[in-house]
Write the structure tokens for this entry.
Amino acid sequence: MAIYADNAATTRMSDTAVKAMLPYMQEVFGNPSSLHTAGQTAKEALNSARETVASCLGAEAKEIIFTSGGSEADNQAILTATAIGARKGKKHIISTAFEHHAVLHTLQKLEKQGFEVTYLDVHENGLVTAQEVSDAIREDTCLVTIMYANNEIGTIQPIAEIGAICKEKGVLFHTDAVQAVGHLHIDVKAQNIDMLSLSGHKFHGPKGVGALYVRKGILLMSLIEGGAQERGKRAGTENIPAIMGMAAAMKEACDHLEENHKYVSHLRDTLIGELSKIPHCALNGAKEPRLPGNVNFCFEGIEGESLLLLLDDLGICASSGSACTSGSLDPSHVLLAIGRPHEVAHGSLRLSLCEENTMDEVMEMAKGVADVVALLRRMSPVWRDLQEGKRNYVIQ
Amino acid sequence: MLYSEKVMDHFRNPRNVGFLEDANGVGEVGNAKCGDIMKIYLKIEDDMVKDVKFETFGCGSAIASSSMATELIKGKPLSEVLTLTNKAVVEALDGLPAAKVHCSVLAEGAIKAAVKDYYERAGIEYDKTLFENCHSCDHCCNG
């Protein structure tokens, strides 16, 4: 039996989500824009899904736009806020060095168009402080975009504090909450969030669907022109089955949030404790505040891709921030942002858990990782040099 | 799958992995910063590779390339060892993904570096043009 521990990449769809989707493929298949009964029945379903998603976030239904996923929502939020800013001559953005590429690449595109971006340091613990955000805000700042929780190392940012500062200073605040929704309690009003991106497949919903929360009063700019769907802000016939699946999964996740958080955090802490016994390894990012399912370690003297392949042979599905797994020559920008040197960042491992994992699996993974790390170290010239004192350990 | 069955076989069951106490030629190429280091230990007697071992820090294809390269030179005369190309390693592995071909280049480079080290240690005159290519991967890293 395979152990799936890559839930930050994607999750298995829940039965609830699958069941919620099925009727909208063959029974209720109408186009919500059609006036006939078949279309209007679909429209009612769409409205109910919007209500569900909104209520899970403490938002109003009209503040929710369905998108193709988290990346589209991030793009639309950032491009909207900066277009609003540019009209007022405000072309400064504040973000962090370890955002998801959907945010980072959008910001890089804006930099080429004359915007200036301040990338806040996330420190060794993987956290920014509200004070640092406050200090970075200028007269011409039009947007603060900071992720709710990091996808690689799971650290949770002080979103409510940042929201309060942005509100006080009159700067729009967007958060990429793709890893947080369904796993952490979110209240966009209490936390003063202006825009929030989420993705269905990170909480047992379907892929290819997400949403953007936009506080009422902010005029959203559309990325896709066409029909008047989503109040004219996102053209294209709505993906009703996926939206229904996402809404059902989100409701289920929010209804069981506290019990899941408690259970998964316990698994996480046990796994962190077990893996910490391996010599010369280090947890990446602060232990708290951390997503309940995130475990991310660096192991000195080995490389992540070979670690993943051998774990896969043991039936353990994990991920790594090594260059070989990122498809580039550099290891993960997140690990570099928290100050891990290249050679150590190549030896990273992320195990991301969910409520479907068990304590038996945690113990099996701990043993599997320890065995594979030892095996790879035995064939590593770097490890030999470290052991023989010819090279200094980065991780003590 | 990312890799051919041959690559996976040499990755899962690497041949000639380890360290040679009495090596008389050792070559190391790569850079931990780039995520690949290969070290080849040669025991050369009568111009023949009597024994060879490797140690590799790197991805699956780096380990498989090292394993295959050592198999290709074991028991061979040095004249033949010096004709080993990365292409021969790739072919013997039934191919490598384009992004991983540099692993085979490293394997060729590590073996040549070990032979060069043998020549230098033994005070044997050699044709320096055979070792002109720099097989370190520094050029591909951002400093």
About this structure: The first strand of chain A starts at residue 3 and ends at 4. The radius of gyration of chain A is 22 Å. Chain A touches chain B through 25 residues (CB under 8 Å).
